[in-house]
Amino acid sequence: MSEDGIKEKAKAAGLDVRRVKMEGSCYEVYAVDAKGKKVETLFNPETGAAVGNESE
After folding, report:
1. CA–CA distance, 49 with 51 (Å, rounded to integer)
2. How far apart are CA 21 and CA 28, in angstroms?
3. Which of 16, 19, 24 minimizes the C-alpha distance to 44?
């Protein structure tokens, strides 16, 4: 998937995307969730599936 495709997936999941970057074999999406918390979600670049996340 393209970076724009990953952004759309993240937005559909309710995230306000701030930055996307490729890290290793996954896309890292830095965003703010619906509760205003900063989150970092990892996405598989082939399927677009979320594979993990971290939050503050």
Report:
1. 6
2. 5
3. 24
Number of helices and strands in the chain (H, E)? 1, 4
| Amino acid (one-letter) located at 37 | K
Predicted TM-score (pTM) of the model is 0.84
DSSP 12-33: HTT-EEEEEEEETTEEEEEEE-
Q: In whole angstroms, what is the distance from residue 35 CA to residue 25 CA?
A: 29
Beta pairing partners, 19: 30
Q: What is the pLDDT of residue 37?
A: 93
User: And the tokens for 24?
Assistant: 């290793």
